[in-house]
Design brief:
heterodimer; A: about 260 residues; alpha/beta; 9-stranded mixed β-sheet; B: about 325 residues; Rossmann fold
C-alpha cells in the first residue's frame, strides 16, 4: 500500500512570534517552522496503516526550499520519502494556486490513498484538500475518525464525523481522505527515526518539473490580496476575584448580568 | 443573475442550517449597501423546506433538486451543481458558512471555477465593486482585511459573526431540476448515517460555551460542566487534554486542532489557557475563568477570573444561577 500524506511546514504557533512581512505575506523567517499539527494526525494514521498492512509513505509539501528541514521531522516519524515542490514563483500563492500545484504533484505519483489534515494553523481555510481531490479526480472523504482500506476490493471505508454522529462512506481507491485528531495521537520520533531520516530521500521539484505553466500559479496571479491589518483592540484588564465560593459566584453572576449575558 | 450568492446548507432533518441564516443576513446587508442583487441556493434531494426558510432572509432562492445528495456526501454533489449555475458568471460572489460542509464545498468550488477564497471571515464590507473580508489571524493577534483581485470569489464566514435576522418580507423560491447532466466527480457512497444518542449541538454556533480542561479531573467532573452549560443555555466544550483523556468526544474540542469558536460567553473551568487552546476561543466576547492557579495564562486574557477550586466555585455558581432564574 502506498499512501501520500500532504504535509505543510507552518510557523510554530507556540512561539507566539508570527507576523506579516513588509510585503503583507506571512513572514516565514520570523519563527521556526513545524509540521502542521493536523497533518501529524494524517501522518500518524498513514503510519499505523502501513505498519499493519505493509507499504510506503511519501510526504508531499509545497514550501520554500528550507521546507526540507520540516519534512525531515515527518520522515523521522517514519515516512519513507519526501517530495518538495518549491519555486520562487510560489511565494504568496493563494488557495487556488496551492490546489493546482498539489494536484499536479500527485499526477506524477502512484498511490492508493492521499491523506491530508483538516486545516493548517497558519491559513486555517480548510479548503485545499477538497480542491485537490477535484483537480486530481479522486473520490473525496473528509473529516475521518476511522479509515479502513480493503486492498482486495480496492476500496476504502471512512467514518466521517457529522454534526449528529457519523456517516460511513465508501469509495474506490485511489482516494483522498481528510484526517482528524480522532484517529489518534501522533507519535514522537525515536532517536533511531531521527537518525534514519537524515539519509531519506527528499526529491525537489520546480513548477517546470511538474509541467505547471509559468505564470498560471503563484503570488503574481493571486486571486486575493491583503488590504490592511491591525492589532485588535486590547481586552480590558482582567478582574480577579478571590473570595469564598458563594461570594465569588455572586460576583460572576452580577458580571454576566451587567454584560446582559443572562 | 445576482451579484451575491448565499449557500443554504441543509440539516439532516431537512431544515436550514443555523449558520446559513447568519450568512444570508450578512450577504443581504452587504447587497443592500452596495445596491447589488442577492440570491440563495439550496441543493438537496428535497430542498423545499430549507429553501423556504432561506427565503425568509433573501429576496430570491433557487431550490435545486438533486437526488444524488441523498446517498453521496453533500458537498461534492452540491459544488458541482452550483459550479454549473455560476460557470457563466463574470461578477459574482458566493458566501458560505465556514463549517465542515461549507469548507468542503468552498474548496471544491474554488477548484472547479478557479475562484479565490477568503476564508473564515469575521466581518465583511463592500468596497469599490466587490466584497472585502475581515479575518482574525495568528490566533487572534492580528485582524487582516483582504479582497479579491478579480470580480469573482468565495467567502467562508465564521459562525456568530452576525445574528440571523429575517428580511422584512419573504422572497420567492424557484424550483430548479438538476438537469445539468451526470455528475462528473468520482462517486463516494454513503453506506450508513449513524445518529449517536445525545450528540451535542454544534459548539461553533453556541451563544454560550462552558468548557472544561485537565483541571476538571475526569468524566465525572464534566457533569458539573454540563450542568453549568444547561443553566446558562449553552454548549459544552473542552481542551485537547480532556479529549485525549477520553473524557469527552473530539467534536467538542476547541483550539488549534479542534473548533474555533466566538460565543458571547466563554466560561472556562480548569483550563490553563495554553496557546493551542487560546487560538480557538480568544475572540469570545466575554471570557470568564475559574482556576486554582493565579499564574495560569488564562488569567491574563480572561475578562474575569475566579481564583479557586472549580469543584467549590462551580456548584456555588450553579446554585446562584438557578436561584436568579427563579
Amino acid at each position: 500500500m502506498h499512501i501520500v500524506v500532504l504535509v505543510k511546514p507552518v510557523p510554530d504557533t507556540a512561539s507566539g512570534g508570527e507576523r506579516l512581512g513588509p510585503d503583507g505575506r506571512l513572514d516565514r523567517a520570523a519563527v521556526p517552522a513545524v509540521v502542521n499539527a493536523n497533518d501529524e494526525y494524517a501522518l500518524e494514521a498513514a503510519l499505523k496503516l502501513v505498519e499493519a498492512n505493509g507499504g510506503e509513505i511519501t510526504i508531499v509539501s509545497m514550501a520554500p526550499a528550507a521546507g526540507t528541514d520540516t519534512m525531515r521531522k515527518a520522515l523521522a516519524m517514519g515516512a519513507t520519502r519526501g517530495l518538495l515542490v518549491t519555486d520562487d514563483a510560489l511565494a504568496g500563492a493563494d488557495h487556488v494556486s496551492t490546489i493546482r500545484v498539489l494536484a499536479a504533484a500527485l499526477k506524477g505519483l502512484e498511490f492508493d490513498l492521499v491523506f491530508a489534515g483538516a486545516d493548517t494553523s497558519d491559513g486555517q481555510g480548510g479548503v485545499v484538500a477538497a480542491g485537490v481531490a477535484v483537480l486530481a479526480g479522486l473520490p473525496y472523504l473528509s473529516y475521518a475518525a476511522k479509515i479502513e482500506p480493503n486492498e482486495a476490493s480496492k476500496t476504502v471505508r471512512v467514518r466521517r464525523i457529522s454534526p449528529t454522529g457519523y456517516d460511513v462512506l465508501e469509495a474506490p481507491m485511489p482516494a483522498l481522505v481528510v484526517c482528524t485528531q480522532a484517529l489518534g495521537e501522533p507519535r514522537y520520533p525515536s532517536l533511531k527515526g531521527i537518525m534514519a531520516a537524515r539519509s531519506k530521500e527528499i526529491v525537489t521539484r520546480s513548477l517546470a518539473d511538474l509541467g505547471v505553466e509559468a505564470g498560471s500559479v503563484g503570488g503574481a496571479v493571486s486571486t486575493t490580496a491583503l488590504v490592511g491589518s491591525e492589532a485588535p483592540p486590547p481586552r480590558a484588564a482582567t478582574r480577579v476575584v478571590r473570595d469564598t465560593p458563594e461570594v465569588a459566584a455572586k460576583e460572576v453572576v452580577d458580571f454576566l448580568a451587567e454584560r446582559r449575558i443572562i | 443573475m445576482a451579484g451575491l450568492w448565499v449557500l443554504g446548507e441543509v440539516t439532516p432533518d431537512g431544515t436550514l442550517a443555523h449558520i446559513s441564516g447568519e450568512v444570508a443576513t450578512l450577504a443581504r446587508t452587504l447587497a443592500e449597501a452596495a445596491g447589488q442583487e442577492v440570491a440563495g441556493v439550496v441543493v438537496a434531494a428535497d430542498p423545499a423546506a430549507a429553501a423556504a426558510e432561506l427565503a425568509t432572509f433573501l429576496p430570491r432562492v433557487l431550490a435545486v433538486s438533486e437526488p444524488a445528495a441523498a446517498d453521496r456526501p453533500w458537498s461534492m454533489v452540491a459544488a458541482e451543481r452550483i459550479a454549473a449555475l455560476l460557470e457563466p458568471a463574470t461578477a459574482e460572489f458566493m458566501f458560505v458558512g465556514a463549517g465542515p460542509d461549507g469548507r468542503d464545498l468552498a474548496g471544491a468550488l474554488a477548484a472547479m471555477l478557479g475562484w479565490g477564497v477568503l476564508a473564515n471571515a469575521t466581518g465583511a464590507a463592500w468596497d469599490d465593486g466587490s466584497p472585502v473580508a475581515e479575518m482574525s489571524v495568528f490566533g487572534g493577534k492580528l485582524t487582516t482585511t483582504s479582497r479579491f483581485t478579480g470580480q469573482t470569489g468565495i467567502v467562508t464566514v465564521r459562525p456568530n459573526v452576525v445574528s440571523a435576522a429575517p428580511a422584512g418580507k419573504p422572497g420567492s423560491v424557484e424550483a430548479v431540476e438538476a438537469a445539468a447532466g451526470d455528475l462528473s466527480q468520482p462517486a463516494v457512497t454513503v453506506v450508513e448515517r449513524v445518529v449517536e444518542a445525545g450528540a451535542a449541538a454544534p459548539i461553533e454556533e453556541a451563544r454560550v460555551i462552558v468548557a472544561g480542561g485537565r483541571g476538571v479531573g475526569g468524566p465525572d467532573g464534566f457533569k458539573l460542566v454540563e450542568d453549568l452549560a444547561e443553566a446558562l443555555g449553552g454548549a459544552v466544550g473542552a481542551t485537547r487534554a480532556a479529549v485525549d483523556a477520553g473524557w469527552i468526544p473530539y467534536g467538542q474540542q476547541i483550539g488549534q486542532t479542534g473548533k474555533i469558536v466566538k460565543p458571547q460567553l466563554y466560561l472556562a473551568l480548569g483550563i490553563s489557557g495554553a496557546i493551542q487552546h487560546k487560538v480557538g476561543m480568544q475572540t469570545a466576547e466575554t471570557i470568564v475563568a475559574v482556576n486554582r492557579d493565579p499564574d495560569a495564562p488564562i488569567a491574563d486574557f480572561a475578562d474575569l477570573v475566579v481564583i479557586g477550586d472549580l469543584f467549590a466555585v462551580g456548584p456555588a455558581l450553579l446554585a446562584e444561577l438557578r436561584a436568579r432564574s427563579g
